[in-house]
Amino acid sequence: MLASRRILLIIGGGIAAYKSLDLIRRLRERGAAVTPVLTRAAEEFVTPLSVSALAGEKVYRELFDLTDEAEMGHIQLSRSADLVVVAPVTADLMGKMTAGLANDLASTLLMATDTPVLIAPAMNVRMWQHPATQRNRAQLAADGIRFVGPNEGDMACGEFGPGRMSEPLEIVAAIEAALGDGPLKGKRVLVTSGPTHEPIDPVRYIANRSSGAQGTAVARALAALGAEVVFVTGPADVPPPEGVEVVRVQSAREMDAAVDAALPVDAGVFAAAVADWRVASASDRKLKKSRDGLPVLEFAENPDILKRVSQMEQGRPALVVGFAAETNDVLENATAKRLRKGCDWIVANDVSPATGIMGGRENAVTLITGEGAEEWPRMGKDAVADRLARRIAETLAG
Ligand code: CTP
User: Fold this and answer.
1) Which CATH class is domain 1-179?
2) For residue range 320-330, what is the model confidence (pLDDT) as tens digits?
3) CATH top class, domain 182-398
4) Domain coordinates in residue numbering, the chain
5) Domain DNA/pantothenate metabolism flavoprotein C-terminal spans what residues (predicted)?
6) Among 251, 306, 307, which residue has the most ligand 1 atoms within 8 Å of its CB, making it the best to mutate?
7) Is the CB of 81 under 6 A from ligand 1?
8) Which long-range contacts (CB under 8 A, 24 or more apart) does 55-61 make?
């Protein structure tokens, strides 16, 4: 997908630099040309020889290298690419970029370039969380610098938390997205997410424990593969992803209308935890304690959005994916749910409290398709989203 694209890859000094060797391979496999630049610190972690062997090109290292200046000046070098990628970017390099310093080749290129820049941070968790780094992150984002990662996980320094550099394939996906070259380019995908709030009266409502984390991650992953994403979300705990069209709703009926307005789409992913029932006659005045005893709420059934879209006779998305949150007999219930709703796939998960999945960071899902059930290992919600987005891309392409 990256054929004839040129990437200027600046490798910063950090242990994650070893992953950049794999990144070069992955980029070249996809037809991209890679011009590598090493900072002096990066040379402590990877050798210029291995970098240039993998890139099949000369490595640029020094600002005042006269041969390079004769061959290609740093200004020209900074502008010869379709995208500048810094992976890993260290706290130090982020600080330089924010401050506008240009005292070595990497920072000078970053100051001189007029092409988009994507950075993949990698640092110790405390360094990433430090207010200075977070200030720099916000400023760089405001300056239009794109970010991929960092991910959360075990770190080389023995600590745990955000700070790990994204995996090479995630960086490739971010590069494709930045260049508008992802496998979902030209595809429009709808994602529903979050809980719904069903009003009892103007101040009270019925809700559920969905945080919106999984749906948000799916929308982000789809956008990263180049899809045009319409993200219809109930009142979630997590903010919506960047780069998608966000439609905010409260109730199931509002979500249903927003989904309708978003059609037609190539695929729909229904990750929202939609309330099955609403209060039949929600009061437009606050209910008061009265001598007549306790209020009695009557329920009415909400529209089943997934089922309606799955069973559309005209304009049905080519791929409809539902989620099944179950607390018992997960496989059996989810398999039956797929048939009952008429969707193509069901992403089933066990949300019984012992799993810690609802509201948690990880998910253990089984993907149920027409061909059977596929159990995925327990992994972060972002990783589940990434894998699902890739499957969707493959299916829509095929
Ligand atoms: N869903 C929907 N509209 C609804 C209810 C559910 O679109 N009114 C979608 C969810 O987004 C999810 C799937 O249907 O993709 C499964 O929802 P779930 O509530 O688990 O299934 P139900 O049909 O409600 O089955 P049950 O309550 O028996 O578990």
Assistant:
1) alpha beta
2) 999 998 989 99
3) alpha beta
4) 1-179, 182-398
5) 184-394
6) 306
7) no
8) 55/9, 55/24, 55/28, 56/28, 57/33, 60/35, 60/36, 60/105, 61/37, 61/105
